[in-house]
Amino acid sequence: MIRKILFAVVAVVALVVALGFYLGMPQPTSADQAMRLPVDPAPLIAQTAAGERSFRIEIADDQSERSAGLMFRDAMEDDHGMLFVFPETKILGFWMKNTPMPLDLVFIGDDGKVKDIMPGEPFSEALIAPGAPSRFVLELKRGTAEKTGIKDGDLVRHPAIDAVSGAAG
């Protein structure tokens, strides 16, 4: 009898541990649930001809976060975005599968300068890839780059970018 009780307790503990581990991992997205990452405490600053523009960002810096991105999100504040951080500078390609929101994709080089700004069409599986190598991509709500004056060549600052570009924080 004690053996059966002990086995049941061990089974329940194992189930609780497994459930805790599962809930602690980034959750896969579904049509009902978008991945939401914590907002980074440091703002991202775009230095434009019209002055500095500040954004609150989520940082997608591992493969699972970069793969999910803003999928299934149907709304986002104008001053909010997601910064995709890649381990190396290369030609990057994105698509908008399962992304209902139109986006601006701001491709940023390892020097912190905007290389290209491309539109992302909702649910499109067409490749979005500029010809210039990039290290970072900032996704913003469509029209935000134009509204805030972000253009090719502008400098983008954030500790994640500055660590690569060598810029002082």
Task: Describe this structure in a few short sentences.
Helices cover 24% and strands 30% of the residues. With 169 residues, the protein is of the alpha+beta class. Strands 5-4-6-3-2-1-7 form a seven-stranded mixed β-sheet.
How would you sum up this structure, described in words?
By secondary structure, the protein is of the alpha+beta class. The chain has one domain: Protein of unknown function DUF192 (Jelly Rolls, Sandwich), CATH 2.60.120. 24% of the residues lie in helices and 30% in strands. The protein has 4 helices and 7 strands; from the N terminus they run H-E-E-H-E-E-E-E-H-E-H. The chain has a 7-stranded mixed beta sheet. A hairpin with a 2-residue loop joins strand 1 and strand 2. The chain is globular.
Topology:
Blueprint: H1 2-24, E1 44-48, E2 51-60, H2 63-68, E3 80-90, E4 103-108, E5 114-120, E6 134-141, H3 144-148, E7 155-157, H4 159-165
Parallel strand pairs: 2-3
Antiparallel strand pairs: 1-2, 1-7, 3-6, 4-5, 4-6
The strand count comes to 7
CATH fold naming: Jelly Rolls
Unreliable residue runs = 9-31
Q: Report the helical percentage.
A: 10-25%
Structural class: alpha+beta
Count of helices?
Answer: 4
Number of domains: 1
* Mean pLDDT metric: 87
**What is the radius of gyration computed over CA atoms, rounded to a whole number of angstroms?**
20 Å
